[in-house]
Amino acid sequence: MATMKDVARMAGVSTSTVSHVINNNRFVSEAIRDKVTAAIDSLNYAPSALARSLKLNQTRTIGMLLTASSNPFYSEVVRGVERSCYERGYSLILCNTDGDAERMNRSMETLLQKRVDGLLLMCTENHRPSQVALSRYPSLPIVMMDWAPFGAANDVIQDNALLGGEMATEYLIRRGYQRIACITGPLDKTTALERLNGYRQAMHRAGLSVLPGYEVCGDFEFEGGLSSMDKLLALPQRPHAVFASNDAMAVGVYQALYKKGLRVPEDVAVIGYDDIQLAQYMTPPLTTIHQPKDSLGELAIDTLLHRLQEPGADPQVLVLTPELVVRESVGSLNGN
Asked: Domain HTH lacI-type, which positions (predicted)?
């Protein structure tokens, strides 16, 4: 494999001149530039990214650590992150943890040893990277996505989950539904708890009771929605409407209703959360709360890059505003 010294020798110049030509960071005459370029082509020389990163103290790579999931929401967020990295001249190294603490810490160490310029974390509060591992890299910029940080030293981007839960439930109430159930996400996750609190607040303000068994704890996965809906259907009074705290569980809700011969929304209205791409192709198309996933990825990268440029800036907590997307999975019991 050719080296910079080989290029310099063939072109009859110093290695520093070769470096100036490659990095275009200092004036070099056209005649010398042509000689260096010809030598590079002849030797098929490729600059060492490792050497450059050591010299510049940056690798132009971003690490991302997230809990593996079948939930399409995460893949759509990752797609937005990767696109934003590419547009800004960075590469993304992605590690899935599969909910395993040991795997998470090993993945964290791998990312840190690869000298990533910054780190995005998207994990549940009960499956966090080791604070010990992070403490060995105190200057590494970190952006937490979707959950609270270890302390005040990190930037956080999160969904206004309380507002989103209220919006979903209030829409069902406006459409005339009163027996409304909620399938939550795992309650060790702040967003799941806040969506549940939003549901409770909307029900309380409307003077509606949450009937026994109408709050079922799910897992943000397809299967969790199916099993949770089965529990609701087994109650003496089945709900007329269900707020599934994410769209993946709403897919499971549809499957449970289909198996019982029930129709959406004629027998049970369903509203989801996230507005994954699949939601608009369900039968009927799913009414849901939209999270701006592309904006989430873009904002995470821009926040990380801002932290790289301004390491002393105060930590930020950035909150994304949810929006109601009305489709066909919610009918009307009030004649509207």
From this structure: 2-56
CATH at residue 36 = 1.10.260.40
Let me know whether 16 and 105 are in one domain.
no
171 and 112 within one domain:
no
178-214 pLDDT tens trace: 999 999 998 888 889 999 999 999 999 999 999 999 9
In a domain, 218, yes or no: yes
98 found inside a domain: yes
217 versus 51: the higher-pLDDT residue is 217
Q: Could you list the beta-strand ranges (E) of the chain.
A: 61-66, 91-96, 118-122, 142-145, 155-159, 180-184, 215-217, 241-244, 269-271, 288-290, 317-320, 323-325
Residue with tokens 């030797």: 43
Question: Are residues 121 and 24 located together in one domain of the fold?
Answer: no
Q: Higher pLDDT residue, 78 or 109?
A: 78
Output the domain CATH number for residue 267. 3.40.50.2300
| Sequence-separated (6 or more) residues with CB below 8 Å from residue 251 | 222, 225, 278, 282
- Count of Cβ atoms closer than 10 Å to residue 240 Cβ: 18
Q: What is the pLDDT of residue 50?
A: 46
Which residue(s) pair with 145 in the sheet? 157
Give the DSSP per-residue string, 106-122: HHHHHHHHTT-SEEEEE
Q: Tens of pLDDT along 264-317?
A: 999 999 999 999 999 999 999 999 999 888 788 888 899 888 888 887 788 888
pLDDT in tens, 9-45: 999 999 889 888 876 767 889 899 899 989 888 888 8
Q: Which residue shows structure tokens 């200092």?
A: 26
Q: Is residue 331 assigned to a domain?
A: no
Q: Are residues 175 and 247 in the same domain?
A: yes
| Residue span of the structural domain in which 251 resides | 161-291
Q: Residue 227: pLDDT above 90?
A: yes
